Amino acid sequence: MRLIAYMVAASMAWVAGIAYMGIAPARADGGTVPEFGTSLPPGYRDWRLISVAHEEGKLNDIRAILGNDIAVKAYRDGTIPFPDGAIIARLAWNYVSSEENNKAFGGPQSFVAGTPTNVQFMLKDSRKYASTGGWGFVQFNDGKPIEAARLSGCFACHVPVKARDFVFTKYSR
Amino acid sequence: MRLIAYMVAASMAWVAGIAYMGIAPARADGGTVPEFGTSLPPGYRDWRLISVAHEEGKLNDIRAILGNDIAVKAYRDGTIPFPDGAIIARLAWNYVSSEENNKAFGGPQSFVAGTPTNVQFMLKDSRKYASTGGWGFVQFNDGKPIEAARLSGCFACHVPVKARDFVFTKYSR
Known about the structure:
The structure is a homodimer.
Chain A: H1 2-19, E1 48-55, E2 61-67, H2 69-77, E3 87-97, H3 99-105, E4 110-124, E5 135-141, E6 144-145, H4 154-158
Antiparallel strand pairs in A: 1-2, 2-3, 3-4, 4-5, 5-6
């Protein structure tokens, strides 16, 4: 329980950091949390599952979409637009054939997650990111954020799903 | 926090129910929890992500593998065999092309989770399930457990990965 309590506290402090315009707030343990986009959100790998997908083509990945508590609650309640503080994470791994699984199934049919490619996040802050639908977009390669210039296309790509608050992924029951 | 504390308590009580040979134990809230296999484990949809996969062929699904706290800790620590109480869940959905995503990407490359197919669980109880590597296997279709006779092939299929305690899925970082 202590670990979970810490994770929740750290995650909430991290979100609070954004609400306070990026000024690092006090954490329960006396430390500070970084501004959104400068480092991976604490505990994101433990967030709950929203859905999964596979992209062919140049991406050739298999992916999981996770959400922090605010995002998952909004999904389940059908809340549109997402409230401030919601964060959606897209984890992706190289799409690889599994010989081991294929033998078990008796045919070449099984594809699994290989090495990670990158991790993307979209964070709702309706004031700070007002010009991009209220969403801030970041991507981490090997745990490091990529340059802001390379994120300029994110929002444009999400505009076709404006009716769902610019979010492509639907929640999988 | 109250919800999370309840979920953890309910999940632990559920696991404890198995350790006590299926006798429904007292829950923190005074209720009882069902024996493994009779109903879906409480809160399993909120468990943490282990990995993802896609199966072609007759299955034609896209899947997420989740674990309860005991299972995820064992995965991360590299603990083999998994300790009693570990539960691994395999959720699967029909594999469907996403026209919406394809338009955004500019090509027919995107596949997402459609309607759910079924949910499978493997639960570690080294005493109760000694004859099948310490794992009990169950499957739920539309929330209802399928007949035990249809689960007889589960263990045999998992034998090739005996070195990993009969678990196919590897943890995705």
